[in-house]
Amino acid sequence: MQTTKTALITGITGQDGAYLAQLLLDKGYRVTGTFRRSSSVNFWRIAELGIEQHPNLSLVEYDLTDLSSSVRLIESTRPDEVYNLAAQSFVGVSFDQPVTTASITGLGAVHLLEAIRIVHPTARFYQASTSEMFGKVQAVPQAESTPFYPRSPYGVAKLYAHWMTVNYRESYGIFGSSGILFNHESPLRGREFVTRKITDAVAKIVLNKLDVLELGNLDARRDWGYAREYVEGMWRILQAAEPDTFVLATNRTETVRDFVTMAFRGANLDVEWKGAGEQETGHCARTGKLLVRVSPKFYRPAEVDLLIGDPSKAQRELGWKAETSLERLCQMMVDADLRRNESGFSF
Ligand code: NDP
Ligand code: GDR
Fold first, then answer.
1. Taking the model in full, what pTM does it have?
2. Which residues does the UniProt record annotate as the domain NAD(P)-binding (predicted)?
């Protein structure tokens, strides 16, 4: 059934913002999406989804680090639902830019919560929390009740925003909910993240545009799902009767190495692994050609070794479940990157 609701999405130029905007527009929402002023605005994701010119979509400039802009944004849009997806979201960069990350990813959420409290307290607020808040393994699998132990400035900033969301819920009765989402990927994933870096490199290697893929820690384990399904979970979180916290995950974990093997297989190449640690290399099983090597420059000062989520609360209370297998997701990404690189038009 079509709705007459309105939604505000911060970070519409990102992976999740684009998919969520499409989902809400399909449901009949009027959507305002925010983007940052920059010398070259990147609308390629909403363009690729075909919603850039949608009559129910408005795009407004906004920077999350500015409190007064946040107040004016909420005042002028008065949305039924606010999805706070904007963030400095790259864990690696957060070690180099801890203060910027704290300001955008941590305080930014509080600017929106304050704006809602001051001018529009009936809005429902979704905070994009993350499995990075679990960080150093305290329990397997990780659920809503698992203790947090973030391992990066990004994880710490997100934990602050997470607890502030809970605090505004408990202190002021704001409908503030948090989705603790495990890694989710897609053909629209940014190329700085490992899955897309891998699928883009596989495409380039196959097309002779790149020699070797260089990666950091191949042993890290992640619970990778399909982003399109996760934005549906975000929406369901805000449709619940009460504000709450939910884990969204697949409950399957694989190493970065496994994902590399899977991605090359998706382009009909089998990888053979040799050596260990910084000396580890991946070779074409047929020709012996070097395809992958490890470079310490991609290691992080502190690593999150093992993430695997327990999404049973979301399944029980929201009817949400991840459906797409990692093999299918990886193939989708490889195919998209082969297509883009063949056409010479790859973001
Ligand atoms: P992206 O990095 O793709 O998108 C982040 C968005 O935030 C971009 O639109 C970016 O704009 C915007 N942004 C960054 N800084 C600011 C700022 N100062 N003011 C306003 N907007 C800003 O992230 P994803 O789509 O992958 O993730 C969405 C959210 O979910 C993020 O908060 C992320 O931390 C969180 N998350 C993501 C997970 C994942 O696996 N994808 C898992 C768990 C949580 P610009 O295009 O200009 O850079
Ligand atoms: P993550 O995603 O840090 O989990 O955060 P990322 O894809 O960056 O890293 C996943 C794992 O791969 C290892 N790795 C590499 N990572 C990158 N980016 N580049 C490399 O070359 C490389 N080699 C190995 C990393 O060390 C790590 O262990 C993502 C982001 O979307 C966050 O915003 C989100 O909150 C979490 O997922 C859940």
1. 0.98
2. 8-333
